[in-house]
Amino acid sequence: MSDLQSGHGVVKAKLGSSITNVVASALFLLPLTVHSFATPAGNFIDLSFEELANIQVTSVSKKAERLADAAASIFLITAEDIQQSGARSLPEVLRLAPNLQVAQTSASGYAISARGFNGSNSSAPNKLLVLIDGRSVYSPLFSGIFWDVQDVMLEDVERIEVISGPAGTLWGVNAVNGVINIITRSARDTQGNLAVIGAGNRENDLAWRFGGTLENGANYRVYGTYFDRHHLSKDDGTAVNDALHKGQIGFRADWQHAGTEWTVQGNAYDGAVEQPAPGSVATGTQFDLGTIPVSGVNLSGRWAQAMGDGSSISLQAYYDHTKRTVPPTFGEALNVVDLQFQHSLLPIDIHTLAWGANYRYGMSRVDNSVYFAFLPADVNQKWSSIFARDEVALSDTLRLVLGGRVERNVYTGNEFLPSARLAWKAAPDHLLWAAASRTVRAPSRLDRDAYVPGVPPFLLDGGRAVVSESARVYEAGYRGQFGDRMTYSVTAFHTAYDHLRTQEVAPSGTYLIFSNG
Predict the structure, then answer these.
(1) Cα separations in angstroms, 397 against 202, 344, 423, 476, 503
(2) Where are the strands (E) in 150-242, listed by range?
(3) If 373 and its partner were Cys, which of 122, 360, 365, 368 is the partner (CB 3.0–4.6 Å)?
């Protein structure tokens, strides 16, 4: 599609301070002047490779540790990387991670995966878990991510931690091939006004953010964004009706005192995704499908307490409401409530223990059609889990990490997700590690409840016997640094998948079913 090869200019202005800084950035070396842009505390601008190796990451062990010591295949996208890339959406930013496969399927649609299983079918990349500030955006409707509605103000992103490989012990089922953890800055680091204006032949966008401080010492920010993503076009110049128009507003507040941290944040969005009209080659008739209305609102809170003895407790809760109507097939309204608890204990001899629990409740309400149906149309689902992790210091340079999670879902009951990792610090700048894990992808509504057409007799008669897809994964990795200008990471892995979902002919031979062939 010709529009994929195009440029986009972005202008950023920081207001309300004694110095106004402007940045202009573009693809394909457009003749624009680049000026310095003041960055708040917490950015990684101008850090050396050694300093970058000391950046704290949390996705590998659910605790802060140096990137250089993380025993996993992890890549870090920093705020500086995002700023210099010129990217204006999360999927485009994720192209910076070499351990991801990012494929654009339409003007607003993306298929993103790690370690394979990617494709234009929306349900193909179904083994990747995505978190935004601890809130999962993985859809229980079809085991995937609706990337067209995942949006944050990119100027407020502190870092994106990308793990390729299993992480089910810490993050639960569906973290089979990887985890993307998007972490935004504290409100303390986003004070003052910031305006962003972008225009190009692919998209136009506007964003504004203001941050301030309350009398009790709490910091806050509010923001609003709007963008139009234009239609793509075919090689002959014919437009494809796949544009996206979307607006979003949100806020975040942070407060810290005497080892206690509070965070409250929320977002709301509304938009429309246009659909290419299918047609008949024989008659040339085009059918107008209209647009896909999308909307959502979420609210989350997090409390963390550091104890005087070195232990810590954290509690997070969020509510997430999403709505999507896809004419003429179906529409869904989904409400999710999620509670997470974690307790990191004081080290005991050579052991550092942590454990936690998670409870999630979802209410899916579907409007079916004569073409396609989820049956039953309305379901309530529960997910609950408990995990434990023990990091054993075998010596000053050798660590063994053992962990396990038991997670229960409504379709397959209890799933056991164990893992073992061994990390050897061969030298201060060189880490060798190995791991063995078992993880699963639990069935979604698409696996169990899908029927075609929406009324009997069915050609596709659901998948009532579908079980979890499982993976046994063995990994070995090496992360090192040579001199002041080169770091590298190498990972070898072997994955044995079982019970992958397939489409089979029913024993009667008259219709199809989903199964695990």
Answers:
(1) 51, 22, 8, 17, 49
(2) 157-164, 178-184, 192-200, 203-213, 219-229
(3) 368
Strands 101-104 and 110-113: antiparallel
Closest CA to 407 of 431, 436, 384: 384
Q: The pTM is what?
A: 0.89
Report CA Rg, the chain: 24
DSSP string, 266-296: EEEEEEEEE-PPPB-TTT--B----EEEEEE
| Mean of all residue pLDDT scores within the chain | 88
Would you list the DSSP string of 296-314?
A: EEEEEEEEEEE-TTS-EEE
Spatial CA neighbour of 499 closest among 471, 469, 466: 469
Contacts of 276 (CB under 8 A, 6+ apart): 106, 240, 241, 242
**Between residues 35 and 138, which one has the greater pLDDT?**
138
Q: Is 28 exposed, middle or buried (0-12, 13-18, 19+ CB in 10 A)?
A: exposed
Does 457 sit behind a cis peptide bond, omega within 30 degrees of 0 on the bond before it?
yes
> Span 458-482, mean pLDDT?
95
Tokens for 510, please give them. 């008259």
Two structure tokens written together for 58: 């949390």
**Tokens at 153, concatenated:** 């103000």
Q: Name 364's Cβ contacts closer than 8 Å, sequence gap at least 6.
A: 140, 141, 332, 333, 334, 374, 378, 379, 380, 381, 445
Which residues make beta-bridge pairs with 504? 513
Encoded tokens for 319:
């509510």
Alpha helix (H) residue ranges in 166-274: 168-171
What DSSP assignment string belongs to 77-135?
EEHHHHHHH---SHHHHHTT-TT-EEEE-SSS-EEEESSS---SSTTSS-SEEEEETTE
Percentage, residues of the chain above pLDDT 70? 87
In Å, how far are 284, 323, 370 from 86, measured between CA atoms? Answer: 40, 30, 44
Instruction: For residues 150 and 86, give the distance between their C-alpha atoms in angstroms, rounded to a whole number.
Output: 18
The Cα 225–Cα 447 span in angstroms is 35
Measured CA to CA, the distance from residue 124 to residue 7 in angstroms comes to: 30
d(CA 95, CA 85): 10
> pLDDT per residue over 5-64, tens digit each?
334 444 554 443 322 222 232 222 222 223 233 334 445 545 555 566 678 899 999 989
Show the tokens assigned to 48: 């050396």
- Length of the chain (residues): 517
